[in-house]
Specification:
Layout: H1 3-22, E1 26-29, E2 32-35, E3 38-39, E4 42-46, H2 62-72, E5 76-79, H3 86-94, E6 98-103, H4 118-125, E7 131-138, H5 151-168, E8 174-179, H6 184-189, E9 195-199, H7 207-216, E10 221-225, E11 231-232, E12 242-243, H8 245-260, E13 266-271, H9 321-330
Parallel strand pairs: 4-5, 4-13, 5-6, 6-7, 7-8, 8-9, 9-10, 10-13
Antiparallel strand pairs: 1-2, 2-3, 11-12
Helix pairs in contact: 8-9
């Protein structure tokens, strides 16, 4: 055989092999999520890093954050807006951390659903090995005012977008992050959603949602948000008012243990959240008490979501007690 021809064949074979390794097949089988035909358990964290004094996400602390995530046993991050930076995705992939990419409905044309530009992102990155799923919307069911007062407009758009993604990329499932448990009417509107994420705040015990979901659907589900903040608005449940890492740690430990008792139904969780967000409730130059979130009366242990105190680490990446809880559970879970 001609030497040049032989080298060309070898190079082509290596390229095919490399591509097959770099782009794992993510699919749904029954109520399980599979990566290259192996069950995948989401040991995740919601990740929206905004520095002090800003309201805009950036990845300047990515290397430090990845090191902390790896220490804690995190294998998945969930982001609320697409990461349009190949270097960031490459760094996550090199660390064996997968990404659930979230798309908003109307984000002024930035890879959003209403403009259709989300498909441009999927075409651009569908072969990137860091991608786990595409996720459409984040608890939009709490905001009918965004859809002319009629949530059916959102659900129709959601299912249509899922169909378009399936036609564009057959390598990844399509999810949505629903606020709490969707009802049968919602499921009927959205038959093309493959995985149902649910933002669930049922005090420190989400057990009932797994039984409810099992009775409704045989599709995979995961908790797209769960957890507690580290500020007590009042003294309650034996925890003092004020900054209280112990309250957050106890609630998160109970929530996580319940999730891992129900892996026959639940595909895991992306805990909320990696770092405190000083931009959410007031002056981004300081950590403010307060904030608001829909359906938040179930936040342990004060029924009040102090929006700037949800991190497993603080804004300077100092570990809270909740970080140790996360690490102890994620690193002992062998799935």
């Amino acid at each position: 055989m001609n030497t040049l021809k032989y080298i060309s064949i070898c190079l082509l074979s290596m390229l095919v092999l490399a591509c097959s390794k770099q782009t794992p097949l993510v699919k749904v089988s029954g109520n399980h999520l599979l990566v290259d035909n192996t069950p995948y358990l989401i040991k995740g964290i919601c990740y929206h890093p905004v520095p002090i004094g800003s309201s805009t996400r950036n990845f300047d602390n990515l290397n430090q954050d990845i090191a902390l995530m790896k220490e804690a046993g995190v294998n998945t991050i969930r982001v609320y807006a697409p990461i349009d930076d190949i270097a960031v995705l490459n760094a996550l992939n090199d660390a064996a951390i997968k990404v659930i990419i979230g798309f908003g409905y109307d984000q002024n044309g930035f890879y959003d659903i209403v403009s259709g530009s989300y498909l441009n992102y999927i075409k651009k990155y569908s072969n990137h090995p860091a991608i786990l799923m595409w996720e459409l919307g984040n608890e939009y069911n709490y905001h009918p005012e965004w859809f002319e007062g009629d949530l059916s407009n959102w659900y129709k758009a959601l299912d249509k977008a899922a169909i378009q993604i399936h036609n564009t990329d057959s390598n990844h499932p399509v999810a949505t992050a629903h606020g709490e448990l969707p009802d049968n009417t919602v499921l009927a509107f959205c038959p093309n959603i493959d995985v149902w994420g649910m933002n669930v705040y049922r005090w420190d015990n989400p057990e009932t949602i797994f039984k409810q979901w099992k009775a409704m659907s045989n599709k995979p589900m995961y908790l797209s948000e769960a957890g507690a903040d580290s500020y007590m608005t009042i003294t309650a449940e034996g925890f003092n008012q004020g900054s209280n890492e112990q309250a957050q740690a106890q609630a998160n430990e109970k929530i996580l243990k319940e999730i891992f008792k129900n892996l026959d139904v639940c595909s895991g969780v992306t805990m909320f959240s990696f770092t405190d967000g000083w931009w959410k409730a007031g002056n981004p130059d300081k950590q403010d008490i307060g904030g608001w979130a829909p359906n938040s009366s179930g936040v342990p242990y004060d029924g009040s979501p102090n929006e700037e105190f949800w991190g497993m680490v603080d804004i300077n990446r100092n570990k809270k007690m909740a970080f140790t809880v996360l690490k102890n559970i994620y690193t002992k879970e062998n799935h």
